[in-house]
Structure formats: C-alpha cells, structure tokens
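Quick one before lunch.
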Amino acid sequence: MPFPIHRPRRLRGSAIIRSMVRETHVRPEHLMYPLFVQPGTGVRNEIPSMPNQFRLSIDELVAETQAAFEDGVRSVILFGIPPDGSKDAVGTPGWIEDGIVQEAVRALKREVPGVLVATDVCLCEYTDHGHCGVLRADDVVGHVVNDESLELLAAEALSHARAGADMVAPSDMMDGRVGVIREVLDEEGFTDVPLMAYSAKYASAYYGPFRDAADSAPQHGDRRTYQMDPPNAREAMTEMELDLDEGADILMVKPAMPYLDILARARERFDVPLAAYQVSGEYSMICAAEQRGWIDGDRVMLESLTSIRRAGADIILTYFARRAARLL
Ligand code: PBG
Ligand code: ZN
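Model of the PBG complex:
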C-alpha cells in the first residue's frame, strides 16, 4: 500500500475547496459593539488605552451607531459615564429615569431604529467607590453586600427597559441577580426583553483598559469577592446553570480568548445561545502589537474572532465589531 493514503492537504489546495469545507464562520450579525456614552454634545474622546474607541456624547453615539450599522453591525451594548460629581455610594446615576444610558437608549431607538440596543447592567460606573454593588461603611476589601445590591440592579435594568432597551445584560456577578431582574421586568410588563447574563465573568486583569475608559476602577480592594477566580472551570458551569434556572436567555463567558476552554465546555453542556466578550485588554494587546508592526492586525483580529466562534460562541461582544464587519 503506497504511503500515505490519507492526504488532508487535498482539501486545502485552493481557496474554493477551503471555503467549501470551512467549519466556522464569523458574520457581522454575530458581533455586538460595546460603546461608551457620556454627557455633552459633540464629544468624541479617544480612549488612550483603546485605540479607535471613544467616549461619545449622545449625538456622537447616534452617529457612530448609524455608521456601524451601515458597516453591517446589527447590535450595540452601552456603558455609561455619568456626569462629573454625580456618583454616590448606591450608584444613583445608574438607575434614575433620565440617566445617561437611559437617554442614550431613547435616542438610539428613535434615530437608528434598526439596531438592537443592549445595555450593560452594573453599578461600578456609577458608584463613588467603583464597586459593582453596595458596600458596608466599614468595608476594606470590596465585599459587596449581595442582597441589598439586587434591588438597585433590578431598578437599573427596569429603567433601561422602560427607555426601550432591546436586551439587558447584568455584569455585576451578584448571586441571584438574574432571577430578581427577570421578576421585576416581568412584573412591569417587559416579559419579552431578553436577558443576557454575564454568567462566567472572571476577576481578570484584561479589564484594565475598560476601567480607564469607563472610569470604573474600584477605589479600594478588588472584585475578587464577586467575580470568579480564574483557575476555576467547574464553578463556571455552576454559575451558568444557576443563571439558566433563574431565567437567563443567553449565557456569557468573559473574557473570551483566555477562557475558550470554558466556552467550549459550556457549548457541550448547554443548548442556549452563548456569548463571549473579547474584552478591552484582548483588544488593546492586538492593537498595540499591530501599531508596532509586529503582527498583521486584520488577520489577527479575524483569527481571534474565528477562534471564539469555533470554541462555541454565537455572539461575540467585541471592540473590533465595526472594523471586522467592514472586512467581512
Ligand atoms: C462592569 C463591566 C466591566 C467590563 C464589562 N462590564 C468591568 C469590570 O468588571 O471591571 C469589562 C469589559 C472590558 O474590559 O472590555 N462590571
Ligand atoms: Zn461592575
């Protein structure tokens, strides 16, 4: 028998045959574009640690969303930067009716009605201490008081839904928040607003650039008492199971590339849509290497998105959404 019988290279011989046997695709509709909104008009401030990403006032947010939509992006997720001096211990600017995200949602639904508008539900952008929930007065490590935070998170999610948000995405990692938010939304008539849970969200150093962008770094302590410990994989399955039981429609793994094993395990185990968040640090590392001429930015971007899809993500939250959609 001549060697070798099996020649996998036969199916790699041309672009056509490679495209015929390709197993994974990234399309613009898989991508969700995170955007930062702040007060003012005409504001388009580039975030120093995130090239080509901006803090936008509502008018500029509308323009960016419109342009992204024309590039093929179909969904955005909003993060708010409240007015200077408005943060307090309970994150009031995050759950008031006329908060920055609430106003931004109204503007987007009016001006760019075709786009799906999701909102990040968390308190860290709105609390003066920078934690994702409320603290006791004598706190030194950032041990957020779980159950007292839930009603504030639910109020925030409800205010987003009332403004017209198409989807809410709690990222705080408090126990039981999915159930409480679902219950409040349902009671208030928002039974059809889907809930995408940041279920397996790790206490990651990859969030560094985002915390500059959103000015949401904890003022003391860290997030390790609520976000997951990076070495744990089985625990992520427990978190996801709980969120499903509580009514989550979509489960998220975050960050994405360093946690592809978690995503792949979740894909095997759960039959609901999965999302993965290619976070700020993942984005900025690729941009930095590209700026130095060390890698081909377009190719690494597409390869990174493909790997996240291959591991099992339906939806990818990525700062590359617009750039990738333009290439796809
Ligand atoms: C808020 C939130 C964070 C991110 C998304 N939602 C920051 C954090 O948990 O500190 C990170 C996103 C990114 O790094 O791109 N809880
Ligand atoms: Zn937070």
